[in-house]
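Sanity check

After download, print the first record. It should look like this:
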Amino acid sequence: MRIKEIQNWEKNFSRKKGINLKKDEQIKIAILKLTEEVGEVAKAILENRWDEIQAEISDVIIFACKIANIAEDIYKTDKLEDVLKRKMKYCEIRTLDKKSKKFNKPKNKEFK
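Expected structure tokens:
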């Protein structure tokens, strides 16, 4: 499944369910829901409920795509899929310092 498919599903889901909020409300609710879902992933891990992890991560991905849709549609940012491709290429050139156990951060205007 592609990221764009998830983004399209989220848009259609919101439309079908009649979710039509003002810009500020959309952003607030989306970030609160994303934070809530990340917390549910953490809680499931800490409570060793591995059978629930994939469903909880799915919720995180959906709400991250919701925020990406808001960024693209309202704020006219680059498409998430395009940024993700660039980010993955950037990660590929990073190297691990075995002593510090940290990855270097090559100079890059987009990813700081």
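If your output differs, re-run the checksum step. Summary of this record's structure: The first strand starts at residue 96 and ends at 97.
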